[in-house]
Amino acid sequence: MPWEDDSDTDGNGPEIIVEDAGWRAVVPHVERLVRRASNASLIWMERRFSGVALVLPETIVLSSDRIVKTLNARHRGRNKPTNVLTFEPPPGYPGGEIILALGVVCREARAARKPVSHHLAHLIAHGVLHLSGHDHHEAGDARRMEMEEVRVLAMMGLPNPWKSRT
């Protein structure tokens, strides 16, 4: 049986901000899914990397392509929206931030013939891994990060996002 956390909010975990109401139209109970994906990611990270200091997301923002494009240009020098941005906290402050672009996430899910909810859960796991120091600049690092994402999603009963659907 897959791991599941059905609590809408328990006072723990990141603040979830739905900045673009369109998220609620494409993903039913989107806050619940984001919380489940975030919690599963954190539980997996604690199990897998016990003793390692983890940076937890303080905030997860479900935003628009326009806002993410602006942030991506300002902070990464890329004048286009991307699916997910992660921001580590300033030194001495807890928690980081994960920001997702609705249009990009929907287009990617549609192109991969996957439910938007599955792609969103995958990107939350991806963002949590980034905050905890994982990266994908080198091939070996990318493969390790992909496998961690697969394991988090498996805890939620979701399929491997790296296997194409036929």
UniProtKB/TrEMBL annotation:
Q: Which UniProt keywords apply?
A: Cytoplasm, Endonuclease, Hydrolase, Metal-binding, Nuclease, Ribosome biogenesis, rRNA processing, Zinc
- Name the needed cofactors: Zn(2+)
Q: What are the record's GO terms for cellular component?
A: cytoplasm
Compartment(s) where it occurs, according to its Swiss-Prot or TrEMBL record: Cytoplasm
- Say where the protein is mainly found: cytoplasm
Q: Which InterPro entries match?
A: MetalPrtase_cat_dom_sf_prd (IPR023091), YbeY (IPR002036), YbeY_CS (IPR020549)
Q: Identify the SUPFAM superfamilies for this entry.
A: Metalloproteases ('zincins'), catalytic domain
**PANTHER family the UniProt entry points to:** ENDORIBONUCLEASE YBEY, CHLOROPLASTIC (PTHR46986:SF1)
| Stated role | Single strand-specific metallo-endoribonuclease involved in late-stage 70S ribosome quality control and in maturation of the 3' terminus of the 16S rRNA.
Put simply, this protein is called Endoribonuclease YbeY
Q: Which organism is it from?
A: Acetobacter aceti
| Top-level taxonomy | Bacteria, Pseudomonadati, Pseudomonadota, Alphaproteobacteria, Acetobacterales
Which gene is annotated as encoding this protein in its UniProt record?
A: ybeY
